[in-house]
Amino acid sequence: SPKKEMLFVISFCCLFISTGGLSARLNKVSLRVPSVEDAKEIVTRYKKLFPPIVSRESTSAMDLVFDSEFAIELSWSENIKPYDAEKTGLLEIGIQVNDKNVLGENLEFQQKKLCASLVPDEDPSKQTNIQMVTLDDPSIGGIPLQVIETTEKSTRSKIEPKIVLCVSDLDASIDFYTNAIGMRLLRKRSLLPETPAMVAFLAFSPQDADELVHSPEGADGLATPRIELRYLYGNENISPDTGLGEIVINNCPDTAAHAATIDEWGGHATEIENGTYRFTDPDGYLFRLEPL
Known about the structure:
By secondary structure, this protein is mainly β. It contains three helices and 17 strands. The protein has an eight-stranded mixed sheet with strand order 7-8-9-6-10-13-12-11. The chain has a five-stranded mixed sheet with strand order 1-14-17-16-15, with helices on one face. Strand 3 (54-57) and strand 4 (61-66) form a beta hairpin. Helix 2 (170-181) packs antiparallel against helix 3 (255-264). The radius of gyration is 18 Å and the shape is globular. It starts with 10 loop residues before the first strand and ends with a strand.
């Protein structure tokens, strides 16, 4: 069947933790699809895959809610840019589970071996096994959906979401996301020998939550929504607007001060209305910073 055209507008609502700086949890991803029929198809497939999620509907959008902390919002529009899997920008949406028995379909997982992580530093001889499968059929809008089962079980949460962005300079992006945006680097590792790539996992989280780095992606069953930054060796041609609109960070207590920090790190923050700013990361991914 033909690939459906769609524009993904990523919107993260933030739950703030009382610290001196920006510390939040990303918990909403908004995707704009061509029609209400496309939205309904995606909702049906996700609910079949992940029975723990619930859906809610308004006149202009549908939400898929994971563990009450994270939601995928689907809104529809005919004036969209196509998602192009041949270009590198938004690469995947990922869901990590600690027990594949929570899934509503029997997926054919494959075992992957991960080498030791660089952050936090691990014994170079250590290998971590994960089970994963990637879906990219039209029923999920064409954008790849990566499902991972970890071997480190947790009773605290069953589903942990992420989005995967391709970057041209991983270290520069880590500096920007941690120092300008205020996220925490959970883990950095190579994907060799399975994939010629280096990745970093980041999230808004308590700075003293050391347990967050225990799992292969640094979330350890806490349902922590995160961003995976992925550098593909030999690829520095990033298309930030292919399939991706903007990443929205809501409920910021002092957007002016935060925008000033973003400016210092080259984010070019511009106030678009009272207390709301737009800025870009080093690869041109567009963000919006909104006040309480």
